[in-house]
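Sequence in, structure out. Go.
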Amino acid sequence: MTASAMNTADAAFRQQVRAFLEDKLTPDLRRAGKMMSSIFSDFDSAMIWHRILFEKGWIAPSWPVEYGGAGWTPAQRVIFQEECALAGAPSPLPMGIQMLGPILIRYGSAEQKKTLLPRILSGEDVWCQGYSEPGA
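Output:
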């Protein structure tokens, strides 16, 4: 693909993302996105946005299509993040999609992938990460 074709494809994708955000990002979700004080949105808003992205097939931009991901290019993932930030979208909860899912895709058994990945994508299962230190 030539640079001009890639730029045309990226520009078209950016317009698609903008139209989606304009349609689906409610004032309440925008407010929740602007109120974020860390990488975590409030839980309810994060889950509403998660389900909207899931229904569109966009909840897991970097996951391979065969596991339910969007299978986007790195450029598409950056465009999506830029547009979400500009629109004030809340962040989906990151632990399942960004942390556990990629580990299961790479190292999980066929049964783990079959059972857990769809539940992570749909938001049916919500994951967290716990830390422990000696003497804590």
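Check: The chain has a mean pLDDT of 90. DSSP finds six helices and no strands in the chain.
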